[in-house]
Write a structure and sequence with these properties.
Elements lengths: L13 E6 L1 H4 L10 H8 L4 H9 L3 E7 L3 H13 L3 E5 L11 H11 L4 E10 L7 H18 L2 E7 L2 H11 L5 E3 L6 H10 L2 E4 L9 H9 L5 E3 L21 H12 L3 H16 L3
Parallel strand pairs: 1-2, 2-3, 3-4, 4-5, 5-6, 6-7, 7-8
Helix pairs in contact: 4-5, 5-6, 8-9
Length: 283
């Protein structure tokens, strides 16, 4: 499964707050022929191998995230079947046209399962126009209510929609726990999240040379509101851009964040792990 060399292991355990195991093992074909996801699928991985490679570098738990009903069912089942795997379930904003009352009822049913720890990824995506903004808005608001009814964390996909995401959260009343997945805002956006108590999950792009704004955002984010993720098989950290991402590459992002924060990487790993229990519940 490993397509690039594994980084040196961390000295403290950490977890991957957001990945897509179903895409990584080829259960779901990559949308639009995405080359990174296609390469991951061609590797013919298995959940067991992905977990073993992650644990070898200190990444002991994964949260695998759904993006439509089929994916959410798959990931919920993976969480039931594999120790150290937990799930999020939702209809992705790009699929918001499929967020019918019947489908949302099924998502809520899945969200109540014990190994499902999040409602997501949901939110707004203004980069792509695969679903209308009206459909995205309605779906997002419905997922917020599901998160509140089930008491699960809300995991947000926010792409070029910062102001509207924050507005909808304010209008609906945010759930107790909100996570901005693959945080993409600048320091100003980070300050708004800090003021609201929202968690910011940083992924591979924080390591990119042209993403100084993300590193500035990470400096603003207090360690008690930071999570780390891969979004695997997407968004691999430097120096592996263009190749499939996987949870075993988390240490590269962790080390970058620790440098940005002026912290020992193992201390940051321990803080992130503690945050994980605050967000997703006791492991």
């Amino acid at each position: 499964m490993t397509t690039v060399p594994a980084p040196p292991p961390l000295g403290a355990e950490v977890f991957d707050s957001h990945c897509h195991l179903d895409i990584m093992v080829g259960d779901r074909k990559a949308s639009s022929g995405d080359p990174v996801a296609l390469a991951a699928q061609a590797a013919e991985g298995s959940v067991g191998r992905i977990l073993a490679e992650a644990r070898a570098v200190g990444v002991t738990r994964l949260v695998t995230i759904g993006y439509d009903l089929r994916s959410s069912r798959w990931n919920a089942e993976a969480a039931r079947d594999h120790e150290g795997v937990y799930a999020g379930v939702a209809i992705h904003p790009n699929e918001a046209h499929a967020a019918t009352p019947e489908t949302l009822a099924e998502i809520e049913k899945l969200a109540r399962e014990p190994h499902v720890r999040a409602v997501g990824e949901t939110g707004l995506d203004y980069y792509r126009d695969w679903a209308s903004r009206a459909d995205q808005d309605a779906s997002f608001r419905a997922h917020i209510e599901i998160a509140k009814r089930t008491g699960k964390a809300l995991v947000i996909h926010d792409r070029e929609a910062h102001d509207d995401v924050l507005r909808v959260l304010a209008e609906e009343g945010a759930p107790e726990v909100v996570v901005f997945h693959s945080f993409s805002g600048d320091a100003g956006m980070a300050r708004k999240c800090v003021d609201a108590g929202y968690f910011m999950s940083f992924s591979g792009p924080v390591t990119y040379k042209n993403a100084a704004y993300l590193r500035e955002a990470a400096r603003v984010a207090p360690q008690e509101l930071i999570l780390v993720e891969t979004d695997a098989p997407y968004l691999p950290p430097t120096p592996h851009r263009g190749k499939p991402n996987a949870p075993y590459l988390i240490p590269l992002t962790m080390r970058c964040l620790a440098q940005v924060k002026g912290m020992d990487v193992d201390d940051l790993a321990r803080a992130v792990s503690a945050n994980g229990e605050r967000v997703f519940g006791a492991w």
